[in-house]
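Chapter summary example.
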Amino acid sequence: MIRRTLFSALLVGLALWMLRPDTPVTALQGGQSESRPELSGFLTDSRGQAISDAEVLVFLNDAAEPAVSTTSSEDGSWVVDLPGTVLESVHIEVERHHYESFSYRLAESEVERLRMDGSFAFNTIVLENQITLGFWVAAAAFVFTLLLIASERLQNALAALAGISIVFAATFILGAFNESFYVLNMERALAYINWEVIFLVMGMMIVVGILEGTGIFQWLAFQAYRVSRGRISLLIIVLIVITSVASALLDNVTTMLLMAPISLQIALALGIDPLALLIPEILASNISGISTLIGTPTNILIGAYAGIGFNDFLINQTLGVLGAMAVMIVVVLYFFRGELKKTSGGISEALYNKLKENARIKDARTLKWSGVVFGGMLFFFIVGESLHMVPSVTALLGATLLLLLVEPDIEKMLRVVDWTTLVFFMALFMLVGAVQEVGLLGVFAEIMGNLIGANLPLGIVVLVFGAGLLSFVIANIPLAAALLPVVRFVSAGIPGAAESQVLYYALSMGAAMGGNGFIISGETNLMTSGIAERAGYPISFARYLRIGVPVTLLTLAAGTGWLFLRFALTGG
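The structure predicted for these 572 residues follows.
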């Protein structure tokens, strides 16, 4: 009881911390800062992106040591108050790892203006990227991590930890002998972790962990059999609908963990190939989650990065997802047309009763409270934006309330939280931050920006199909994380794209739908394949390829068509 209460209190504390106002604090030096001369300016790179954490040194009257210094903020701005002394000359230097140093000496007329007006604002200072050994270390570590993930030589979290460890080894060990190896320090690495994503995922894991123990999804799958009355085509469609709704509200992996076992039992009872049910469910889970903020990990990343809320995904993605789902259902029914010709003579009463027993509700009380709390969470996901309540707060408060109401074993709940996934996210954020820090993503963004220019339709096609095809071989979570800064830069060069955020939606559709390409393209695919193989029905790479690639290309086209209609043709 005490441990459960303490853990709940911790979750509430985290939620309140996430709600804290970001109030700037201004320090006055000796109460005299208002009367002191002031220098200010903005720092950007060659692509117009703000540069934070750069050191600005101010030298007065040809002194050898700086009189005052500061660092640039997240938006690239900097301000310094000069000490009360006679100003004869002012010289500034700007230094930051991975950028060329900047030096400027104010002209006599500018110094005079500073004395008379009490302030001087520099025009935007542009720092040029500097390619160092650290650049190549970060690039190699990132590519190495992607190869490890794609080849499945190491578990995802371990691969990401290996990548960021290479970066830290270069910074702290090799950097001690040669500063050119520096990539980023621990403070900068931690600054790249998006804690909203971490807490949102953790809260949803707790809620889902409680919900899945009630047996509700196994019950729904069994009801699908009852509704279809053994008609295979109708059964496939009903299971697709159940999987789609579940994937929009939960994560894909959890949905398939719940749906796969009962689907196997139903297929065997009807005498059809279980893959005729499992493969459509895989495809549906990867597509349908795109319609909500919490439906896919990539949407969680995109939403937190771009400030896209639950309602935004729902409004701007749902019709496109429905169109893609309709295309997928047509392809699936055609591909499995041989199974549809089979007629079921029904199953024995004993087998029917066994299926019914396995699909019964295990804990009605927990299901009742889970439904109430989950409904409340969906409500606050929708209205929370007007209350300035980020989704992670809703998830943490919902998880806490559910823990208090159903009184589960807190140690069991701690085991339900997939800490490996959270570690993967944190290591991945730091690794992507490393390649962003050295300017690698900026180079890629500039190439894409030159390719797309100000052409919005071309930008949509490139992002949807580019992310989709890359997701065939690159896990969509690290892919989306790496492309987010690129999308921000490209959006800035297309009129209206930054305001509508259309290219972020294109990335969402491409990364998620592309996960259907190969059996190795996503965790959902691999996990379901493992369940099927243990049951004696392996999903071969070639067989999945024959349906996965056509479905992916057609659904990417459907998603692109919707984004054209929603944003390019009607103006959003």
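To summarize the output: The beta strands are 38-44, 55-60, 68-71, 77-81, 90-95, 102-105, 119-121, 125-126.
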